[in-house]
Specification:
- The chain has 386 residues and is α+β, with helices and mostly antiparallel strands.
- Among the domains are: 161 residues, no CATH class; 87 residues, no CATH class.
- It has 14 helices and nine strands.
- A nine-stranded mixed beta sheet has the order 3-2-1-4-5-9-8-7-6, with helices on both faces.
- Strand 8 and strand 9 form a beta hairpin.
- The model has no long low-confidence stretch (mean pLDDT 87).
Length: 386
Amino acid sequence: MRHATTVFTLLIRLIPHRRAEQLARNSGTESRVRKLDWFARLGALVFAQLTDCASLRALLHHVEELPFVRRALRIDRLAKSTLTDALEKPVGELFRAVLNDLVGRLGQLARSQRGRGNSRRWSELLTLIDSTHMSLCLSMFEWARSRKGDQAAVKLHIAYDLYLRAPEQFLITEGHVHDHNPKVVFTVEKGRTYVFDRGYFDLDYFDDIRDAGAHFVTRVKRGVMVLKYGARRRTDERVLADRHVTLGPDADARMLRMVRYRDPQTRIVYEFITDRFDLSATSIADAYKARWQVELFFRFLKQHLRIKRFFGTSREAVEAQLYAALVAYVLVEIVRRISQGAVGSLLAVLRSLRVALTTAHVEAEWFKRLQSSPHLHLLLAEELLA
C-alpha cells in the first residue's frame, strides 16, 4: 500500500467514510451541497481543530496556502461563503457515524496491540459516564437559550472507555438538559462496569444496568433510604465500612453493596454504592477515582482542541464542530498508540502533529514509524474492504 506523503493525507485516509456516504445517499442531506461535500467539511474542521485555527479566516488562509491540504480534501479552492453555507447543513448524523466507526477502529487497534489470548482485567472494562457544559453567547446562539432565559449553553454527554482513553458513546444537547434525562440514553454493554456521579443516581437506572448484565459504581445520594444488613470483612484502614444494603422503601429491592472510604490525602469520607461484590473495597474506590480521567478528557478538548470557539452560530454548525473535535481527538489517540505505544503522551503527539500538519515533507522519526507500522496498514486496509 502506498505511503501517505503528508501527515494530513494520512489522517484523512484514516477517517472512515463508506457508511457515512451511504447515509448521505439514503437521506438526501447532501443533495443540495454541490461545492463542498460532507467529507471535505469534516476534513476542513478536523484540520482547523488540530492546527488551532482561531477563526474561519485562519482556516481559509491555511487551505489557500497549502495545496496538499486541498488535494486531501478533494477540492480546488475553499471560499468563505461556501464553507459558511455548508456549515448550516445538518451533518450531525453523518459525522456521528464516522465517529462511531473511527472509535471502532481504535478498539481494533487496541486489541491487536494487546495480542490474542490475553483476557482483560476488570479495570479495563470501565466506562465513565459524564457531561461537560459549554457556555455560549445568548445573543448569537438563541436556540441554546436556557429555561430561565438568561444564558445559553450546549452540553456534551459521553460514555468514556477507560481502556481506549476515548469516548465510545456521545450525545450533544442544549445546556439545560439534565444528565439523567430521557434524551440522554447510552447503550449498556454486558460485562462492563459503569461509573458515574450522583447526577445519574436513579434506582430504576441501576436495575436497567443490572438487567443488561452490566455493573455500576456511584456515590450514595443524600436523603435516600438505606437499609443496612450484614457487614463484610475489612482489611484496609482506609475502608471505614463495607456492608450489604438495599436502597429505597421497596421491601423486595435488590441487594447492593455500600463502601465507606476515607481518602488518605484529603481525609474526605466517601460513600460508594455498587453491585460489584467480587471486588475489594479499595478497588471500588479506585474505580470511582478513575472518573478523573474523563475530566482530563474534557480539559483536553477545551484547552487544546479549543472547542469553545465556534465557526458558526446555528445548531448544525455547533454540532458539526463538536463532532469534528471528537474525530480529531480519536485520530490523535490512534497516532499516539501506533507511534508511541499505550503509555505515550497525547499532548506531545498533538504538538508534533501541529508542527507537521502544515508541512509538505516530514522527516520526523515518529512519522516514519507511523508510515511503516503494520497496525496502520491494517486500519487502512479495513477501510478499503469496508
